[in-house]
Design goal:
13 helices; 655 residues; hydrolase; 6-blade_b-propeller_TolB-like; disordered N terminus; serine-type endopeptidase activity; alpha+beta; 32% strand; Rossmann fold; AB_hydrolase_fold
Length: 655
């Protein structure tokens, strides 16, 4: 525990202050004057043009293949907003099948390949609706889209007419599961009560082709899960695993209805895949110092595909579902990441993504029957030579307690070959903290990093304690009050850079940025650790962990409390960890970027911080996108968001 001084600390003063500065979330929580005051200003073409060019370098989504392997449907943001496209054969000309300004993605496909199930959001609200569309194209049919409600596809039945979806339309902090008939348009509630529920898997009787058992998952924390099993024949539900444990589990059925595949770190430091039968766990993947990051079994219960997170690099493996023997997969040279997408219901075709530092992701379809690998989707690289992209180098820095913190570093040749010049100065550095906080920065094709490299910066992505991919001790090191013990990892990155990356005795200038938890890390870096960074850009970051938890969307509150702490029981620690507590320390320039419709980090988090900085005449700027949520999804707004960030760092770090 961190010692608390006996005299009144700044967080105690905030705790004793008047009512919170805002309530609610979303655009409706702001008045028109505030939206107008902080609206995004235009940027000159010389700033936006290089960003537009590099954003045009992209890969379409992995996509879904029809059961006969003749068509693929995928999401693509080439129009400026994510929409759904169709390919009538490998590397054919793509045909757009959805349109408009609302982001639309594929959620599923009927087993006969005749219809698509689509998810469509509005202005970043993260309250998507569910739609039906013929694979031949045409108008979308609304299954359910309710304002303020999250509707998500859960399962598509073999009968071609029945689907299951979840929605928080009865209680904002609880998911109800519905059965929906695509022909009669009738929905029936099949679950009730409190909790965030989903369908984890369905076991289909191989003889009848009908549903035999359901696995229902329930989130009890940011990673903790409970699972329950419903037997169709007896109409009974029983607890299966995780009850009262607060343990991380991910479960699917195995080869038979009484066998389960369980991914968990319960029995070791890293996640491992187990067979669970007769209440006994048997490991089916090797014991290695790396996480099994994810897994999936095809609907025919033939093959298990799993991905290994090896220090940020992704390796794909396959084993047989009957005896867990290894299955040979195609090999990809010089790949940073190889991972599986979806497998057709008949088990024949699987999409595979391959990514390297020098090219956008390549999407393939693997035919298990012929063992033929075919590249279907071609990435776009107009006007950009991606072979010149800089690859990440894995380095580390030491925290104050001696712990080595891994970081991926992107350096241009101009920033690596200047040490011999007696007149040279160090390149400025931008440290980018990932979101989550259970996220992980990984190497690979990184357009965002390359923009900073092109502008003359060294770009650094640390994986501080609390990041995923380094074992459960590392992952859980920042839970609740324990964050007080490791929050200094944020400051230590800058101290390491200033001490060790000098050129001719000159320290580099260091900036800090990030989104979501990375935005919070930026605000903490600029306030609690003021002086460690020379400028900061916070994107959708939390300024006060108490007001954040009290105002975030109800469905997220239970998940975030398990990570950060309870706003009542842990109020003092939360305030001690809140950037707004140390706002009077901020001296270096700060830019705050926020979406008005953000359901995760309320826009009030940005406004309350900015107003406090304005009252104290601290150099700062706030930009609010009225038509965005938790980050920018529209291409025009992405250009502005990146443009403000780059322009801000050029002004304060390059000059």
């Amino acid at each position: 525990m961190v010692a608390i001084a006996t005299s009144q600390a700044p967080w105690e003063a905030i705790a004793q202050s008047s009512n919170p500065t805002y309530q609610g979330l979303g655009r409706d929580s702001l008045d028109a004057e505030t939206l107008k005051r902080y609206a995004p200003p235009a940027l000159p073409a010389n700033v936006t043009r290089p960003i537009e060019a590099i954003l045009d370098v992209r890969s379409p989504g992995m996509g879904m293949v029809t059961p006969d392997g003749k068509q693929m449907f995928f999401s693509w943001g080439v129009t400026g907003t994510s929409q759904v496209w169709r390919l009538d054969g490998a590397q054919r000309f793509p045909v757009q099948v959805t349109g408009g300004q609302d982001a639309t993605t594929i959620a599923g496909m009927t087993v006969d390949g005749k219809y698509l199930l689509l998810s469509r959001d509005r202005q970043g609200e993260e309250n998507p609706g569910l739609y039906l569309q013929s694979t031949k194209g045409g108008e979308l049919e609304v299954i359910q889209h309710i304002k303020g409600v999250r509707t998500a596809l859960q399962y598509v039945d073999n009968d071609g007419r029945t689907i299951y979806f979840s929605a928080n339309d009865i209680k904002p902090d609880a998911n109800i599961i519905y059965r929906y008939d695509l022909q009669t348009k009738q929905k029936v509630q099949i679950s009730g009560g409190d909790g965030l529920w989903w369908i984890a898997d369905v076991f289909v009787n191989p003889d009848t082709g009908k549903r035999q058992k359901f696995l229902f998952g329930k989130a009890t924390g940011s990673l903790a899960r409970e699972y329950y099993e419903y037997d169709v024949s007896t109409r009974t539900t029983k607890p299966l695993i995780g009850q009262g444990e607060q343990q991380e589990y991910s479960i699917q059925y195995g080869k038979t209805a009484d066998e389960y595949l369980v991914l968990t770190p319960k029995f070791g430091e890293f996640r491992r895949l187990y067979r669970y039968q007769n209440q006994q766990f048997t490991p089916i993947t090797p014991e290695i110092a790396a996480d099994v990051d994810s897994f999936d079994i095809d609907d025919q219960r033939q093959r298990i595909l799993y991905a290994i997170n090896d220090g940020g690099y992704t390796r794909l493996q396959a084993i047989a579902a009957n005896d867990f023997s290894a299955i040979k997969l195609p090999e990809f040279a010089n790949a940073d990441h190889v991972y599986a997408g979806s497998t057709t219901r008949n088990g024949r075709f699987t999409t595979i993504g391959v990514e390297s530092a020098k090219a956008p992701r390549l999407s393939y379809v693997y035919d298990w029957q012929t063992q033929k690998l075919t590249q279907w989707v071609l990435p776009s690289t107009p006007e950009i030579d991606t072979s010149r992209f800089v690859a990440a180098e894995l380095e580390s820095y030491k925290a104050k307690d001696g712990t080595d913190i891994p970081m991926f570093v992107y350096r241009s040749p101009a920033c690596t070959n200047n040490s011999q010049n007696p007149l040279a100065k160090p390149c400025p550095v931008v440290v980018h903290f990932h979101g989550g906080p259970e996220g992980q920065s990984v190497p690979g094709f990184n357009r965002y990093a390359q923009l900073f490299v092109n502008a003359g910066f060294v770009f650094v992505e640390p994986n501080v304690r609390g990041s995923d991919g380094y074992g459960k001790t590392w992952l859980n090191a920042d839970n609740g009050r324990d964050r007080l013990k490791v929050i200094g990892d944020i400051e230590d990155a800058a101290l390491h850079i200033r001490r060790n990356w000098q050129v001719n005795g000159i320290e580099p200038k260091v900036g800090v940025t990030g989104g979501s938890y990375g935005g919070y890390a930026t605000l903490i870096a600029m306030s609690k650790f003021a002086g460690s960074y020379d400028a900061g850009v916070s994107n959708v970051g939390m300024s006060n962990l108490v007001t954040f938890l009290n105002n975030t969307a109800p469905y997220r509150r239970i998940l975030r409390i398990s990570e950060y702490g309870d706003p009542v029981k842990d109020r003092q620690a939360l305030l001690e960890l809140s950037p707004i507590t140390y706002s009077d320390r901020i001296k270096a320039p700060l830019l705050i970027i926020q979406g008005a419709n953000d359901p995760r980090v309320p826009v009030g988090e940005a406004v309350q911080m900015q107003k406090l900085l304005e009252q104290k005449n601290i150099p700062s700027q706030l930009v609010i996108f009225a038509d965005e949520g938790h980050g920018s999804s529209k291409r025009s707004n992405q250009v502005l968001q990146i443009g403000y960030t780059l322009d801000f760092f050029k002004k304060h770090l390059l000059n």
